[in-house]
Amino acid sequence: MTSTVTESVVSPTTSETDTDTAVAADEVLAELLIEEISIDGMCGVY
Amino acid sequence: MTRYALHPQVGLRDEQFGALAYHYGNRRLTFLNDARLVTVVRTAAEHQDIDDALAAAGVPDGQRPAYLTALQRLHDAEILTCE
Amino acid sequence: MRVTDRMAQGLDAPICLTWELTYGCNLSCVHCLSSSGRRDPRELTTDECASVIDDLAAMKVFYVNIGGGEPTLRPDFWDLLDHAVDRKVGVKFSTNGSRITTAAAARLAATDYVDVQISVDGADAATNDAIRGAGSFDVATTAMRNLADAGFGEFKVSVVVTRDNVGQLDDFLALATGFGAQLRLTRLRPSGRGADVWDDLHVTAEQQRELYQWLLAHPGVLTGDSFFHLSALGEPLPGLNLCGAGRVVCLIDPVGDVYACPFVLHEQFKAGSVRGNGGFPSVWRTSALFQELREPDSAGACASCGSYDACRGGCMAAKFFTGLPLDGPDPECVHGHGEVALLAASSAGSRPSSGPGHTRRGPVPVSIGRRPA
User: The pTM is what?
Assistant: First the structure.
């Protein structure tokens, strides 16, 4: 099990289409909803 | 029809910001940073379909895609099971 | 990083914590962070320990790291282990292996929610035993063999990185992998008996850079986030990269005192006692020390350094026990600011001390006898 902080990546929008913007907004919102870390990645324990 | 349930090996603990989910098997710790998401996760198994759970939790239609993305990520992380 | 902001402010319950079950130990490792050796007559009783576990379960602490001293020396260790896992408080216990017999290994392999961590500080007997005592390498590797043979699965092999063993990192990895275990490397702090050997044993600046590169190249190796001060060298190491003391972790000591972390067993970092009103939950939630630690950091003397966001000023314990101010550089600051600060501190006076603790006086047993299985 790796000690890794993984955060959901926000897809960069290079296109101006509504769909891309909507997808990017969804990614941002999804990132706000969840963050994930490893329980072995905390200082101060054996 | 997508039906989610909390994985049996996951412990869910309420926090001021939402909840912490710990998977005793893969030892991953996940922050659920939104109270409605926590409600959806807790009640998902009670509904035939995830859309019903989202509606029951008061998720606005416009935000459903985001919540579904988040739920998919929770499934990928084995926090949720799916049938 | 919002996750770390949230964690830095503290949570309603620890995510995990360290619990030293006894100060008794059959070894006398030269760097022991808890200065263990002799049991303390005031240690928590079995009932008091069970009560702590019940509190942790009620707080939904996901898991507890049990150590000491040598936790398996307590006759009630196995019952307490069961008491915890039965309540879904996961346990990882840290041991020198002297009581991990074939029978014990089989019992552990059959137990859910438990993980085992075997301590070694050298990839061969000579290097290891110089720190942990004659025969201790054999005892540890026997325990590893027993766990592997019992089908325990991926236990942990944990190493404190020193000047003398930092050249053996590949060997440590091979040792752990050979037993089906996962390697864990942690930082030597000047804590407990570590204070007496730190000047001689802590890694050099050059060794730190090599260690950092090695860790980047081996992301599967655990560190308990203990090298977050090295993140100032470039790409951050995996982990939260912040001090968890009093925020997401803390320590319960064998007599029930609660400290910010296992590396600061000193009055200044004592938050309270589980024997007080409200027990552990009350200490975690209301102690003045923890409220203070949960205030936002101030960079202090590090404010003008571009690396502060990466290293957060390093380790509180490392600074405290080398006599450095807590709002300044870590003694092993990768930019060398700590070395400068140490020179100033050494002319200013002596370093804080935890005293002899529970270190055994008199001669230490020359070899570690093996108990029958």
Answer: 0.90
Task: Order the strands of the B10-15 sheet from edge to edge.
Answer: A34-38, B28-32, B18-23, B10-15
Choose from C222, C227, C289, C320 for mutation: most chain A CBs within 10 A: C222
Cα C312 from Cα B68, distance rounded (Å): 36
Q: How confident is the model at residue C296 (pLDDT cuts 50, 70, 90)?
A: confident
* DSSP per position, C77-129: HHHHHHHHHHTT-EEEEEE-STT--HHHHHHHHT-TTEEEEEE-S-SSHHHHH
Residues recorded for chain B: 83
Any CB–CB contact under 8 A between A5 and chain B?
Answer: no
| Pairing, β C90-95 against β C114-119 | parallel
Q: How confident is the model at residue C270 (pLDDT cuts 50, 70, 90)?
A: very high
Name the minimum distance, in Å, from the CA of C15 to any CA of chain A.
8
Q: What is the ipTM of this complex?
A: 0.86
Q: Tokens 């003045």 identify what position? A: C288
Q: For chain C, list the contacting chains (3+ Cβ pairs, <8 Å).
A: A, B
Residues with pLDDT less than 70, chain B: none
In a 10 Å sphere around its CB, with 0-12 CB exposed, 13-18 middle and 19+ buried, how is residue C296 labelled? Answer: exposed
Which CA distances in Å does B57 have to B1, C208, C286?
Answer: 18, 51, 33
